Amino acid sequence: MVSEIVFRTIGLTKVYHMGQVRVHALRGIDLELHAGELVVLLGASGSGKSTLVNILGGLDTATDGKVFYREKDLTQATDRELTAYRRNHVGFVFQFYNLIPSLTAQENVAIVTEIAQDPMTPEQALEIVGLGNRKDHFPAQLSGGEQQRVAIARAIAKQPGVLLCDEPTGALDSKTGVIVLEALDRVNRELGTTTIIITHNAVQAKMAERIIYLSDGKVTEIRQNEQKTSPRELNW
After folding, report:
1. Does the predicted TM-score (pTM) go above 0.85?
2. pLDDT tens digit string along 171-225?
3. Domains (range + CATH), the chain
4. What b-and-e string marks burial along 40-78, b requiring 16 or more CB atoms within 10 Å of the CB?
5. Which residue, of 29, 37, 177, 198, has the fewest CB within 10 Å?
6. What is the Cα–Cα distance from 153 to 128, expressed in whole angstroms?
7. 62-66, 105-109, 115-119, 220-224: range with lowest mean pLDDT
């Protein structure tokens, strides 16, 4: 049984103008991403991974081509519609945690739950990432890995349809990174959240159902993993 298509891109193109120079970040991407799957976008720096995810998440717009979220054409959406789309449907996790230092873990997550349509409680979100006992700690009292897991809790607390993660372990050592990847894997399995992880680390691709390889703004290969590897078995 083929699962529902969550994202579909057709000829997706992005050109940046830097002075007189035209930079082609994406060169005609055709892609389908399905409900509930965990996908790794793999490629070197500058391959177009972040640009693609930023357009999927409504943070950036395409120069040409189409991108659909379910049946909604994001390329035709107004700024207001994109804001509502990001607020209600998309969770973001970046390399840097962007937590507010003066707020506890619970309060950092509550920032999202107070404006979401159908949120879980901050306590529930922190439990899912294994930090229920750290909810009253401030970011300065948490390790880097714990701060990133708070950021994941914040992203999933609004129960988004998709979770977009841009180098979520980029600032972490291997051992701590594995713990963060375990949290993302758990969110995908238990909540059924379509999860897309950007990385340049080929080892991490073993945890995905599908690996999408990007180079020079193009999809060069899509590979199905016959058997997903548990994050705890990864080492880099």
Report:
1. yes
2. 899 999 999 999 999 999 999 999 999 999 999 999 999 999 999 999 999 999 9
3. 37-64+85-233 (3.40.50.300)
4. bbbbeeebbbbbbbbbbbbebebbebebbbeeeebbebe
5. 37
6. 7
7. 115-119
